[in-house]
Write a structure and sequence with these properties.
The complex is a heterodimer of chains A (394) and B (538). Chain A is an alpha+beta fold and 394 residues long. Among the domains of chain A are: 127 residues, Probable tRNA modification gtpase trme, domain 1 (Gyrase A, domain 2); 82 residues, Elongation Factor Tu (Ef-tu), domain 3 (Beta Barrel), CATH 2.40.30.110. Helices cover 18% and strands 34% of the residues of chain A. Chain A has a six-stranded mixed β-sheet. A six-stranded antiparallel beta barrel of chain A has the order 14-17-16-15-18-19. In chain A, α5 packs across α6. Chain B starts with 5 loop residues before the first strand and ends in a 14-residue tail after the last helix. Chain B has 17 helices and 21 strands. In chain B, strands 11-2-1-15-21 form a five-stranded parallel β-sheet, with helices on one face. Chain B has a four-stranded antiparallel β-sheet with strand order 18-19-16-20. A three-stranded mixed β-sheet of chain B has the order 7-6-17. Chain B has 538 residues and is of the alpha/beta class. Classes of the chains: A alpha+beta (394), B alpha/beta (538). At the A-B interface, α4 of A face α3, α4 and α6 of B.
């Protein structure tokens, strides 16, 4: 059976030639239809590259929707829970959007590129819902996922790496800000955003300049110890800094089959993204009702005793099972054993003590640990440099 | 003459399943079969030397895994091999590839519409919601809403409970789903003609309704509710053809001491003093048993092998009014090599599964118009597969066997019987249609068996050639299948039962009706139950 070049089940990102060369392990996984690296050389070393120098992550497969037209702002304001009017031009806002029952369909970021011009980045594919939601608005919704290549450059030396590539004045860019630079005659958009909870940027470019961008970035970043990192190191960083992962910490409402398996923003600890002062948005009535009658679940971050990650653990309060863990990791920088959990609303106040039932295996020997754990107030990794402008040199 | 504990009429998959569970419980069972071979519509026939045809049913998904495991069908020779990928070839030269891989399928759909590609995920979730509702009831008798017996009330409470758990919107969706047309259902998700047409096929297969006829959305669900090894909605080939299913069932049945009598055409079910006492064959032989189970369709059962004088008039009336309309035919073709399909990679991932040639709902609805007009479709819907690409036992090396399910074919041509000329015309229509997408197809044909509703009725015994033993529409499902009051497999005469696809949960090679009927029979006989519970579907 012969196969045409490029006619593979999984697609390659615009950086693939460089990513493949850098992937010493040749270890891959699927992400939204693309072949992406799980790790490049060593998960732990990649993680520490992000935390102590700079790491580069190819986020090209991210779903990206371009929303333009006179009603673009009004449309987004109806779609998402937060007030889009507060996201100025050249600013980015994290948000969630809900179905009519107030259940989270996805989380993502809104990039306000220009007047009446936005980009919505989403974990799940959203064209169906966006198209239905756009009815009646003078707005155009285009899937530009394949037309924009993107890298996340994250970590203490990230600003230095990019400055050294010629992005002068980048240090003045505020968190969630957007700046534009010329890159070999092509627009290079830089946003101070990321999924690692540290000083970091995401750089966005036309696919035909992707390979050149990768080359220049790694050349410029060399003195600043820049390294690529894969999905496994990213997983550690996002848990350490308290970021939810759609499809892991919650199931997008549209994908749930069994009744009651979706979650509201309040149940995911994202109530701060819900602006009930907005007169109209999808799910508002249901969310107001939830405020009145109470939520079913509660998102908590747990500090778990011992050093065994509480993967898939049941959580107990006394004899009673009160919840389950959705994400867990030993966090190497914070030196802390963190778990995200969904628990019943009756417990889960800051400082509450629970017990995690952890199973782990060493050489076919299984051990069950009942590890005490405590509900903590916020993420264990949250450095000041993340928020500082101008960005401080490492 | 020997007296049996139970006689089952018809050695189709449900008759054999029913017999196996009765024999397993220690009963002395006889299965009588009209044909010289067993299997009914679940057969492998060598009609051209060295080629094996699944000449009726041709793919496998619905067969309940509980039964396959419990009756040790793998040990008795059954292997179901899943296939992936299917395609609809389009008039404009393009084709839509329904890839097995989710991401590849997304990319293919996005080639037509980004929106459809994304909506497919919503579609799948919604269909899975509905399958979750019906699957727990496949291995159970349907609840009787009019009964005040404790067991029926318990069933009903549970049944109602699973509906109310859906919530207001879920309940509304479910009611719509069970009554709406597959065309309307698909239009809630998709804008692309070929995508809708590709998915709509399973809403009309075996059904004398069009894609815009109410009730066809459920037929689509019926094709999604099976699974291959827990992969819900997947389909596979029985290795060696569908006869491997009935052969394994027969061996299992015989391992419990069951007997099979072929060439035994039942003239009537013997009824004395209001109870069934046995069967009389065409040749005058009689076989006696206090339990007689009919695996025939409801019309054959009540209008053919039973005397109207033995039945309550309302049952005769209900049997007459039962909807069992012929709608399809079949071509089974021996090929000298693998045909080329325009634009589709030969032997590639799309060519191993079903191929279709109807690229819009409009084409499918027009095909139904021909049926209403009393003739076969000028541009029929075909569901064609070449299982010999995956199963090495179906044809000699390098040669191939092709199964072509064809719809629509009416039970009568303009009100009169099919003639041989009609049959030849039907065959020509189908072959010409396939050839217009496959330039080398005609030259590769070594032998072709063509079956119109006339042959399906005469050879298989399916009234009008209806493959499901009765339409799978809401008015003939659950406690209405085959008729209200008789949906729990017990006939109107004491000792007489039904176990065919005309009973809950309906058609397809599922074996659930046969097993569910056995459970009820054993309960009436106060014997220990041998029929397994359904697997929980979390």
């Amino acid at each position: 059976m012969s196969r045409k070049q490029g006619d593979t089940m999984m697609l390659e990102t615009p950086f693939h030639s460089r990513v493949a060369l850098a992937n010493e392990l040749n270890l891959w996984e699927a992400w939204s239809g693309y072949t992406t690296p799980s790790a490049y050389f060593d998960v732990e070393l990649e993680y520490f590259a992000v935390r102590s120098a700079a790491g580069v992550f190819d986020l090209s497969p991210m779903n990206k929707y371009r929303i333009t037209g006179p009603d673009a702002g009004a449309f987004l304001n109806r779609l998402v829970t937060r007030d889009v009017g507060k996201i100025g031009v050249d600013r980015v806002g994290y948000t969630v959007w809900c179905d009519n029952a107030g259940q989270v369909m996805d989380d993502g970021t809104i990039f306000h590129l220009a007047e009446n011009d936005y980009r919505l980045c989403a974990y799940a594919r959203a064209m169906d819902w966006l198209s239905w939601s756009a009815l009646g608005f003078d707005v155009s919704v285009v899937d530009e996922s394949a037309e924009v290549a993107a890298l996340a450059v994250q970590g203490p030396t990230s600003c230095s790496c990019l400055q050294s590539m010629g992005l002068d004045g980048l240090e003045t860019l505020k968190p969630f800000g957007i700046a534009h630079f010329d890159f070999e005659g092509e627009d290079l958009m830089v946003s101070r955003t990321g999924f690692t909870g540290d000083l970091g940027y995401e750089v966005w470019i036309a696919p035909n300049k992707a390979e050149t961008l990768w080359d220049k970035l790694f050349e410029a970043g060399k003195p600043y110890m820049i390294k690529p990192f894969g999905s496994q190191a990213l997983e550690l960083t996002r848990i350490e800094t308290g970021f939810l992962q759609a499809g892991v910490d919650f199931v997008p409402a549209q994908e749930t089959i069994r009744p009651g398996r979706s979650r509201s923003p309040f149940e995911l600890g994202l109530g701060w993204l819900v602006d009930l002062n907005k007169p109209v948005f999808n799910g508002r009535q249901a969310l107001i009702r939830e405020q009145q009658i109470g939520s079913r679940y509660h998102f908590v971050i747990l500090d778990v005793d011992g050093n065994k990650p509480a993967h898939n653990s049941f959580l107990f309060k006394g004899q009673q099972q009160v919840g389950t863990v959705t994400s867990a990791a030993w966090c190497p920088t914070a030196k802390s054993n963190v778990a995200f959990a969904q628990i019943e609303t009756a417990c889960g106040d800051i400082g509450d003590q629970l017990v995690a039932e952890i199973y782990y295996e060493k050489e076919l020997h299984w051990t069950r640990v009942l590890a005490p754990c405590k509900v903590i107030d916020g993420a264990v990794f949250n450095p000041a440099r993340r928020r500082m402008t101008p960005a401080v040199a490492y | 003459m020997k007296k049996y504990d139970a006689i089952v009429i018809g050695a189709g998959h449900n008759g054999l399943t029913n017999g196996a569970y009765l024999a397993k419980a220690g009963l002395d069972v006889l299965v009588v079969e009209r044909n010289a071979y067993i299997g009914g519509a679940t057969v492998s026939r060598e009609l051209h030397k060295d080629w094996i045809y699944s000449n009726c049913s041709y793919v496998c998904s619905l067969l309940r895994p509980e039964i396959a495991r419990d009756l040790e069908l793998p040990r008795h020779g059954l292997q179901v091999v899943p296939y992936g990928g299917s395609a609809t070839l389009m008039k404009n030269g393009d084709h839509f590839g329904y890839y097995y891989d989710h991401e590849r399928l997304h990319r293919e759909m996005a080639r037509f519409s980004q929106r459809d590609a994304n909506a497919y995920e919503r579609y799948l979730a919604d269909v899975m919601k509905q399958t979750r509702l019906i699957r727990p009831y496949l291995m159970r008798r349907p609840p009787d809403p009019t009964s005040l017996k404790l067991r029926d009330l318990k069933d009903l409470v549970e049944f109602a409970g699973s509906f109310t758990a859906l919530g207001e919107e879920g309940l509304a969706d479910t009611l719509k789903f069970w009554t709406m047309s597959v065309g309307d259902f698909l239009e809630q998700y998709f804008e692309t003609d070929v995508i809708k047409a590709h998915l709509a096929g399973s809403g009309i297969i075996g059904t004398a309704l069009g894609v815009y006829s109410p009730g066809t959305a459920y037929v689509l669900l019926h094709h999604y509710m099976g699974d291959v090894d827990g992969n819900v909605g997947a389909w596979g080939f029985a290795r060696g053809g569908m006869g491997a299913v009935s052969s394994a069932l027969a061996k299992s049945y015989q391992s419990y001491g069951g007997e099979i009598l072929c060439d035994a055409d039942v003239d009537r079910i013997l009824v004395r003093n209001g109870r069934a006492v046995g069967v009389a064959l065409d040749n005058g032989d009689e076989y006696h048993a206090p339990v007689v189970v009919s695996n025939l369709d409801p019309k054959r059962t009540f209008l053919d092998v039973m005397d109207a004088t033995d039945l309550p008039p309302d049952v005769v009336k209900k049997a007459r009014n039962f909807k069992i309309r012929g709608s399809s035919g079949k071509l089974n073709i021996a090929l000298d090599g693998l045909p080329t399909f325009r634009g589709v990679e030969k032997g590639g991932p799309l060519a191993t599964g079903e191929m279709h040639l109807s690229d819009s709902l409009e084409v499918l609805e027009r095909a139904y118009d021909d049926w209403k007009d009393g003739t076969w479709s000028k541009e029929p819907y075909v569901d064609m597969l070449i299982p010999s690409q995956i199963d090495p036992t179906m044809a000699p090396p390098g040669k191939h066997m092709m199964t072509v399910f064809v719809q629509y074919a009416p039970p009568k041509i303009k009100g009169r019987e099919w003639t041989d000329e009609d049959k030849a015309g039907f065959e020509r229509t189908v072959i010409d249609q396939i050839a217009s997408y496959s330039p080398d197809f005609k030259d590769l044909i070594l032998h072709c068996e063509t079956r119109t509703p006339r042959e399906l009725e005469a050879e298989v015994g399916l009234t009008e050639g209806n493959i499901f033993q009765g339409e799978l529409t809401f008015d003939q499902l659950l406690f209405n299948r085959p008729f209200p009051g008789y949906a729990q497999y017990r006939g109107p005469v004491k000792g007489m039962y039904m176990c065919g696809s005309g009973t809950h949960p309906g058609g397809g090679v599922m074996s659930a009706p046969g097993a569910n009927a056995a459970r009820e029979i054993l309960q009436d006989l106060k014997k220990d139950n041998t029929v397994p519970e359904g697997y929980a579907d979390d």
